[in-house]
Amino acid sequence: MNSMVQQLCPVQSCKKIATDTFLLRFNSPDIVASAQPGQFVNILTAEIGKGPLLRRPFSISRVEDNIIELIFHVVGIGTNLLSQNQPGDWIDVIGPLGQPFHRDADYGTALLVAGGIGVAPLPFLTNDLLKYGKRIETFVGYRNAGQVFTKHLQNVRIATDDGSDGFHGNVVQLLELFLNQNNFQKAKIFACGPTVMLKALTELAKRKSICCELSLEGQMACGIGICQGCAVERTEDTAKYALVCKDGPAFLSTEVNL
Ligand SMILES: Cc1cc2nc3c(=O)[nH]c(=O)nc-3n(C[C@H](O)[C@H](O)[C@H](O)COP(=O)(O)OP(=O)(O)OC[C@H]3O[C@@H](n4cnc5c(N)ncnc54)[C@H](O)[C@@H]3O)c2cc1C
Ligand code: FES
Questions:
Q1: Most buried by CB count within 10 Å: which residue of 57, 60, 117, 131?
Q2: How far apart are CA 118 and CA 192, in angstroms?
């Protein structure tokens, strides 16, 4: 059943939580009712004529009662406009969109791995995995201590590029160290972050024979499978390409060529 809706949603709050990073909370009982971890919403960041015509996609970071939470980095015009929202403003949202993470497979430990703002979908995923009774180990990598955000995560290990917090290096190196010291019979990696990180993680998962699911964050235009602008090459299938917005954003690392 497709339960996607388009609606105007009232903003509850929009606060800076780390360097260039904002937490936006808005009310949408309809989206909360059907949202699953790994799905995203597509937002018009300003009224038509006052900002970009194209919507901007954001992972659903957490749901609570009738509230959806998003965490985003300000990188350009749309995210700058979004960050200026105040309680009582209204935003035009389409969602939930895309395929969720596959959480119910045969594994005991979930290894959650994020690079930068790739942390966004992890709180929602964490909450859900706890319901499945999974053990959770979380690995997050940032440029520096100012960007670190770990709220609503479980068993968190931090890596920073400049060594200002946690492990000095990248998050894939940190995960590899952890895997070398701990033996997991049945683990599954869930990851979100920049493509370069996801490529390195795909290699590591292959070497360690661990099932790995990636949430891709390529650029999108329509967000609903019409424009074909978000195609990603499949490794093998009858169709050569998959659409990140419709077939993803979550894919097994063995399914796509990054
Ligand atoms: C499924 C999905 C989920 C996402 N979830 C989140 C999230 O939870 N939090 C978050 O902060 N961001 C997320 N993003 C990325 C977010 O959509 C972009 O940062 C946003 O669209 C940028 O809009 P803008 O108008 O501010 O930037 P623009 O002015 O459009 O671009 C500014 C700069 O950022 C680059 N850029 C734009 N979009 C992306 C992108 N997707 N990946 C890499 N570089 C990009 C542009 O090339 C340009 O250099 C997600 C993207 C996808 C596809
Ligand atoms: S963004 Fe248009 S098809 Fe995916």
A1: 60
A2: 5
Return the axis-axis angle of helices 195-208 and 171-181, rounded to nearest 10°. 20
Give the nearest ligand 2 atom to 227 CA. Answer: 2
Q: Which amino acid is at 127?
A: N
Nearest alpha carbon, ligand 1 atom 38: 219
Going from the Cα of 244 to the center of ligand 2, the distance in angstroms, rounded, reads 7
CATH number 2.40.30.10 given to 5-97: yes
Protein residues with CB under 6 Å of any ligand 2 atom: 220-223, 225-230, 243, 245
Does domain 109-257 bear CATH number 3.40.50.720?
no
- Strand 21-27 and strand 40-44: pairing? unpaired
Q: What average pLDDT does the chain have?
A: 94
Nearest ligand atom owner, CA of 217: 1
Q: Where are the domains of the chain?
A: 5-97, 109-257
Partners of 187 in the β-ladder:
109
Alpha-carbon span 247 to 243, nearest angstrom:
5
Ligand closest to 52 (CA) is: 1
Cα of 178 vs centre of ligand 1, distance in Å, is 30
pTM (whole model) above 0.85: yes
